[in-house]
Amino acid sequence: MQDQLKPITSPDGLFHDGNPATGELGTIVTSDWLNGVQSAVQTTQQELLSVIKSNGQNPDPARKDQLLQAVQSIAWGGNQKPTTLAGYGINDGASKADLQSAISNLVAGAPGALNTLQELAAALGNDANFAASIAKLLAGKADRASTLAGYGISDGATSTQVNAAAPAGMVAYFAMKDAPTGWLIADGSMKSCKDYPALFTAIGAIFGGDGIKQFQLPNLQGEFIRGWDRGRGADPDSTRGLGSLQNHDFLSHSHASPTTNGIPTTPGREVGTNMGTGIDYGDGVGPVPTDKTGGAETRPRNIALLACIKY
To answer: Does the pTM of the predicted model rise above 0.90?
Structure first.
């Protein structure tokens, strides 16, 4: 078959009538393009005529179905769609009649001790749709249960009980680097409300977020946990709310130290460990300075675990 017809040589590849009022020219069709159209049409006609003639037909200008009949003959071997295996030329397939005959022979030939199929058929009145009939009869005896209790199971945990054991918003610590399935690392990150609906319902925007599209997880990395006081008074900050952060602090206190550390308070007076030396150390008035001691923070003994929150 000839290659695709070349487009006409107009700016947009389309034909235009032209407009004398505006001076727009019509599309100029060259003889080269027209010869290409003629050649393409003739080639296509020759291809179609070859299909029709291969079917044993002579071209008839009055008919509009010769190509259809030729294609049906090629696909089906005739002008009608076959409805049987033989119609498609298949000679090694079993028909429905063959299958029915084989099943009937199997049932009829079953020995007395293995005549289950016969008994089932007889019980259902030799119903041709016995499988559907059995299912209907069984369904009428007992409805399918949708719960553990419906099946009489008493030692299985329901989904409600499982969720209650570790509800959304529960915080736990794990001795591993990654959060287990169903948990998120409590790292203060933002999460989507629609991706974690149960957790958002549980904690809302207590720790941050707009509470519409996003909410923030509590950041428990490197933090100690203090139970929410809820008005008890053990926490001196009575204004604290759930999830609030409390900075480090020391209880107000003082340290007592000797003003003389055994040094004579007046010249010539001997006290403390210097008694009997007769050495004058000065008046010894005022506190004795001490050196700093300790590390980078005040903390109890602890161990680092991964803080996670259930979603």
So the answer is: no
